[in-house]
Amino acid sequence: MKAIPVPEIEGVYLFEPTPHADQRGFFSRTFDRDVVASVGIDPDGFAQDSLSRSRKGVVRGMHLRGGAGEAKLVRCSYGAIFDVVVDLRPDSPTFRNVKTFELSGETQVSVYIPAGCAHGFQSLTEVSDVSYRIDRPHDPSEDITISYKDPELDISWPLSVTMVSDRDERAPSLLEALKPTR
């Protein structure tokens, strides 16, 4: 497994496994604590693993977490997704940069998303399973949702959007979502 920095968004890494294939299929390590630690990420810092399953065209996002934020390691374990990361850390040199990836069960590549970045994806296949490893227990009161169709983000979803959650459909624009509360 190797770690590949993503220059468009500081602190984002792709973790590319080395699959071992034969006539049965393949075996692949999807997490390696030594490789993760080699780029300054605490491999013991993850608190929860979750899984979502989506149908083709479904969009989930754009989501981030308030408070101390939430770092996550995301992998498409089955199917394929169009994955989107937006840097919303005001002090970051890559602030407001958007980067997209195609993640798939074929490659098993993971993307590490630092706290303060928004994340979303669209399922490209009839079924896609996405695994999330997050660095602290989920607290729904800190959830922030930004409209997946916000023109300021200018995300070109590759397929027609077939379904989103009610929360994602009603999500405010980037500017509204990040407006300080008084």
Task: Give me some keywords for this one.
182 residues, six-stranded antiparallel sheet, mainly beta, dTDP-4-keto-6-deoxy-D-glucose epimerase, globular, five-stranded antiparallel sheet, Jelly Rolls, 3 helices, RmlC_Cupin_sf
Could you characterize what this model shows?
This is dTDP-4-keto-6-deoxy-D-glucose epimerase. Belongs to the dTDP-4-dehydrorhamnose 3,5-epimerase family. GO terms for molecular function: dTDP-4-dehydrorhamnose 3,5-epimerase activity. One of its GO terms (cellular component) is cytosol. This protein has a single domain, classed as Jelly Rolls, CATH 2.60.120.10. 8% of the residues lie in helices and 40% in strands. It has 3 helices and 13 strands; from the N terminus they run ββββαβββββββββαα. Strand 1 and strand 2 form a beta hairpin. The model has no long low-confidence stretch (mean pLDDT 95).
Please compute the radius of gyration using only Cα atoms. Answer: 16 Å
Give the low-pLDDT segments.
none
Largest sheet: 6 strands, antiparallel
Instruction: Kindly report the average pLDDT value.
Output: 95
**What gap, in angstroms, lies between the N and C termini?**
46 Å
CATH architecture: Sandwich
What number of domains? 1
- Overall 3D shape: globular
